[in-house]
Amino acid sequence: MLIFGEEDQGGFFWSLLWTLDGLEADPTVWFLEYDEPPIAEQEPLSGFLIQFSLYEAAMGADYNSFSAWAGATHLGALGRYRGRVDPVRRLTSRSRTDAFARGHRQGAVNAA
Question: Which of 94, 97, 92, 93 has its CA nearest to residue 111?
Answer without folding.
Answer: 97
